[in-house]
Amino acid sequence: MNPLLRSAMIPMNTLCFQRNFAACSRALVPVQLPSRSETHLWYVVPDEVKSASLLGQYSKILSPCEKEYISCVRGERLKKTALLARVLVRTTIARYQTNGQVDPSSLKFRKNIHGKPELEWDENDHGSPPPIHFNISHTASLIACGVTVNSPIGIDLEEKDRKIKNNIVSFARRYFTAHEVEMLSSIPDPETQRQHFIKLWTLKEAYVKALGKGFSALPFSTFTIRSRNSSRNCQSRDLSDSSSSDAEIVVESVDGSSSLMNSWQFTLLELAGTHFAAICVESDGSIGGRVFTPRKVTARKTIPFVEDEFHPGTDAVVLGGL
Amino acid sequence: MASVTGTSVRLSSVSCNLKQTQVTGAGISGSASAFFPVNGRSFPSLKSRRFQISCAAKPETVKKVCEIVKKQLALPDDSAVTGESKFAALGADSLDTVEIVMGLEEEFGISVEEESAQSITTVQEAADMIEKLKQKAA
């Protein structure tokens, strides 16, 4: 048995819960909450989760509502992704154990008015709620859950190779801002342009998700996301120098009402070698005049209840600037 | 990224579909005589005149929308996509939905408000919206 569990007070129902996972080599490894300036990113590669009995065990920790949703999803691959996404959320939050051992299946969720999932917590049953904020995103080949403390978070993933069916500049003219159209139009190489488009899309999605609003409540044409370079010309189009540590990704309102926008911090990364991931977090730093400090992101790959891997420097590579 | 939501496609997270957005006019059929489920809720058919503004979409419109959806999501031709199919359940994320809407705009010569674009979640909703916009343009 995991030594951490041995030393903890283990209620009977938790022990029984662990015993059901015969396919697993160990329990959920508990972790400390991220610090206020850190984001945790947990991810699952669906193709690596093959065991039918493990997937069957995973189904058991879902709520009836979640099971019903998955039954509406068409196709085995999509059903599996939907299942793993819910399992990732539940098991990730359960790891943080701020109120002792938490059974992932006991967590309750609700949606805000725009549909963003949030943790629902009954203080009478479980004491004060953990200060956890989370957001999830998935593609066909990757599922990720970002976790912060005390800061609303939005994340978005896209496959690096994702092909856009429409003409990129036409798309941008229709849905993005003039500044972004100009930036995209200025990229001569179609492949670089496509990648820049994907990165921009993930950043914009992460922003509206962090706000808890979603696309229809906050159309993408109302805000610009771009790189701001503290030491060079802001209009620099030297996209080949994407590793510049001076580059900061910022959001600006198109109508000039930008007073609240300095409080959003963006991180753009390459995840698992296959995806672009954008994270947007509300920082509690002072507005204006602050020194740009990139936010620390700790990424861990997981197969819940089976194994966790942490490969700093290779799992998640931060891309400085857009 | 899909990254949903109970499946509001825009948030890509997976959980029970209890969307709180308003029901669009497209969801209420003035001419069909059957129940017409929208977002899990059913609206009995109403032959009252005030619902004649939005008509149930023509079958050929629904068929065309299905084709565009299948193409965007790279689904095989024989895959079961019908009026009731939810984009998110077919694997569409928010970017797919926007691309589908763009494809519909080009195909039907219409222009969709962004606010409406992301609130379309099924093939039928898309088809009904197209009919409504075509009528307005006519």
TrEMBL record, chain A:
This is Uncharacterized protein. Residues 59-144 form the 4'-phosphopantetheinyl transferase N-terminal domain. Transmembrane segments: none annotated. It comes from Punica granatum (Pomegranate). GO terms for cellular component: cytosol. Pfam families: AASDHPPT_N, ACPS. Signal peptide: none annotated. Residues 152-244 form the 4'-phosphopantetheinyl transferase domain. GO terms for biological process: lysine biosynthetic process via aminoadipic acid. One of its GO terms (molecular function) is magnesium ion binding.
Automatic annotation (TrEMBL), chain B:
SUPFAM superfamilies: ACP-like. Signal peptide: none annotated. The keyword Lipid biosynthesis applies. One of its GO terms (molecular function) is acyl carrier activity. It is found in: Plastid, Chloroplast. One of its GO terms (cellular component) is chloroplast. Residues 59-134 form the Carrier domain. Keywords: Chloroplast, Fatty acid biosynthesis, Fatty acid metabolism, Lipid biosynthesis, Lipid metabolism, Phosphopantetheine, Phosphoprotein, Plastid, Transit peptide. SMART domains: PKS_PP. NCBIfam families: acyl_carrier, PRK00982.1-2. Belongs to the acyl carrier protein (ACP) family. Carrier of the growing fatty acid chain in fatty acid biosynthesis. This is Acyl carrier protein. The lineage of its organism: Eukaryota, Viridiplantae, Streptophyta, Embryophyta, Tracheophyta.
